[in-house]
Design goal:
By secondary structure, this protein is an alpha/beta fold. The chain contains twelve helices and 14 strands. The strands form three sheets. The protein has a seven-stranded mixed sheet with strand order 3-2-4-5-7-6-12, with helices on both faces.
């Protein structure tokens, strides 16, 4: 075992996959310059290890980066490209949504389009709404794309390795706040299958379904409630598409209560999809109405106090659970 931040774990996954498969290459804005020299960051040192042919600094054009990825995948390579902040995905969406996500379907499954789009997400840095808007539900709505949102360094490394080896396009969303939070990561080729949720804390009284940075909020709320004798089960989805419906339904049928937690805005958020699933498949098992704890329907503020208001916290989760107990 080793202790790594998520940025280091991602760096290790990229390095190992590039060593394993010469078809894997990286491209993105600034991935080979000094701004990424910090050893805690995902692409630190990779240009020195693999050279500019396999670690390509690109122009500031997300559309061009996405077009490069789609063309390279069609030609038999396995690109891993970075479009930086989550809202910038909108600039890359034509190539990713209208081409990468559909080309395998249009070929009748005869061709593969293996590419990974790495996206940085998450509020908490005072970067404002043009850099902090979480769009995972919007991406998950696009058929043909797999959407991965890890919450721990181990999951980030194992899922990224699986994403790079997948023959379909994968959007890999990393919360920047997790880059510097260390946790144990196994040595060696530790892969995690895409589409499998993980119960990070077992419980009997209520289920929290969450992903990415909000896992920490869920575990804090669960610890506080445990002091009062309330056992909360925390399910980390890790992957939004494909969705591990069995893990969600198994937990809800056990506890009879559900809170869905995410940082993204409420209206149209992925919590609504999970709520619909539970209402369709496990309504009879519910002992109380489910609850959603989400960001408010506003652009992410740059002001630190307002940004703090925007991000869901453990107090809100505890209050939601108290309502349904």
């Amino acid at each position: 075992m080793q202790k790594l931040g998520m940025g280091q774990a991602i760096n290790q996954a990229l390095r190992e996959e590039m060593q394993r498969d010469p078809r894997v290459f990286l491209a993105g804005e600034g991935i080979g310059v000094s701004i990424n020299d910090s050893p805690m960051l995902p692409t630190a040192g990779l240009i020195d290890a693999f050279g500019p042919r396999r670690v390509k600094d690109t122009p500031v054009s997300e559309a061009a980066i996405a077009g490069l990825a789609v063309g390279a995948a069609a030609a038999g390579l396995r690109p891993v490209v970075e479009v930086m902040f989550n809202p910038f995905f909108t600039l890359a969406s034509d190539m990713i949504v209208n081409h990468a996500a559909k080309l395998r379907y249009l070929s009748g499954g005869k061709t593969s389009f293996p590419l990974v789009v790495r996206v940085k997400s998450g509020a908490g840095f005072g970067a404002g709404c043009q850099h902090s808007h979480n769009l995972e539900a919007w991406v998950a709505h696009c058929p043909g794309l797999k959407v991965v949102m890890p919450a721990t360094p181990r999951d980030a490394k194992g899922l990224l390795k699986s994403a790079i080896r997948d023959d379909n396009p994968v959007v890999f969303i990393e919360d920047m706040g997790l880059y510097f939070v260390p946790a144990e990561v196994p040595d060696g080729d530790d892969t995690i299958p895409i589409g499998k949720a993980d119960v990070k804390r077992p419980g009997r009284d209520v289920t929290i379904v969450t992903w990415s940075k909000m896992l920490g909020v869920a575990l804090e709320a669960a610890a506080r409630l445990a002091e009062r004798g309330v056992e909360v089960e925390v399910v980390d989805l890790r992957t939004l598409t494909p969705l591990d419906t069995d893990a969600i339904l198994t937990s809800v049928r056990k506890t009879g209560r559900l809170v869905v937690l995410h940082e993204a805005t409420r209206t149209g958020g992925f919590a609504g999809e999970i709520a619909a699933l539970v209402m369709e498949k496990a309504f009879a098992d519910l002992k109380a109405p489910l609850r959603r704890v989400t960001g408010p329907d506003i652009p992410v503020p740059a002001s630190p106090p307002l940004e703090k208001f925007y991000i869901p916290d453990a107090d809100q989760v505890v209050a939601a659970i108290e309502e349904i107990l």
